[in-house]
Amino acid sequence: xxxxxxxxxxxxxxxxxxxxxxxxxxxxEEEARRLLTVAVQRPASDDVGMGTAIRRRFASxxxxxxxxxxxxxxxxxxxxx
Length: 81
Fold this sequence. Notes:
Layout (H helix, E strand, L loop, with lengths): L10 H14 L3 H13 L9 H9 L23
């Protein structure tokens, strides 16, 4: 089994892990081990791009149809001397 040292852990995070460990009757080390194990065992399908996340978030509001913008002729490029 490997070991891991975590430096510069926020005090608030450490306190939360300590409280969770006490609540579950485990050591902080065991609680951290379980938290990491659960985090890495999540299916990869939860990892989505920002566009997909936004679409899923607002899908319940219905679709939005936008009118196409009218096309115009291109402007002539500026002349630099």
